[in-house]
């Protein structure tokens, strides 16, 4: 997107006013009006077109900028389609249900908060969705915590931390694919590089949750048993259904392209479904497009397993294309260039650039309350700056997740914050101090940025 030529040269004050207006409009629409991000972004695009015409920028140039911006996301769009297919195939083949079932086998009264964090992490990686994890197993654990008469705030913090660890590290996650696609980094290379900050945050978090866990409780675990029985009732729980995960790990180790890897393991998932029970080809095609529909009769289990399909990714794809179109207009109108030119002198070292990107990700989450935009706008704004200080793009994609993806549930008026508070019936401010993993993300990424450790330099 930085190759888009500016067709106007607004002053810093003018560009700054436009950016603040966009942020205010987005924050009001999403936070107060509870609008989905698509409509506010569409309105911003319309206003930017009007602004460009007032600045006497030909419409053809504006249109060209919009197309150039949107085209930057085509790689991510194909990944998103494959992710939708993969989730469906792994559901029908039993891979995801089996992984979740084995996770539930670890539940016990001892180290309760640590186990909640661990299981939510496993489920989050399995389904690639933090909000689905919170709304299913998260609700179950809140019920268990209530029966045990222990801290609901810490339980909620462990649920949110685990769910967003899984969301961040899962190849099925839309935010993970968005972050890697925005800056042009291979999906699995991005996940591997995130381990430098994510694994320490995970270890520190699970230790803290273990220390805080109560001991000697005799609470009933009926809810967990219901989940386990519901999963067994699907008939999909078998050790061999984990084969696609082994293949995924092997292909990742040998650095196979993400699209090829996703295609291979998706085919494996469909193949496994034939071992469970032969399915008509027309039914498979329908599932791959519309998603897998669980019909166990257990509402919680059905809500957890009914996922996937190409169609499930359409809303995300639309948001990505709209946001990138807006970004293309901002560059065509010279607004981003004007802002960066003013603050460029601040970013002269790797540490300062990483800190600036992290603050931007946190700031967009706080002001607008939308994690997709925090990832997209931070990536587009700092791509060139990272290159100037000699840092490879995967450093930026890591920062975008460390300070973007995991920060959104900590903002009370954000999309994730509102959803989680509603589903778990606990305020964001109450569970925020105990979301150790989410809080450690921005801190560790800035510390590693200034230390110079784990950073990858651009190849010359």
TrEMBL record:
The chain crosses the membrane at residues 12-32, 38-54, 66-87, 99-127, 139-165, 194-211, 231-250, 256-275, 317-340, 346-368, 406-424, 430-450. It is a multi-pass membrane protein. The keyword DNA-binding does not apply. Residues 162-452 form the Na+/H+ antiporter NhaC-like C-terminal domain. Its main location: membrane. PANTHER family: MALATE-2H(+)/NA(+)-LACTATE ANTIPORTER (PTHR33451), NA(+)_H(+) ANTIPORTER NHAC (PTHR33451:SF6). This is Na+/H+ antiporter NhaC.
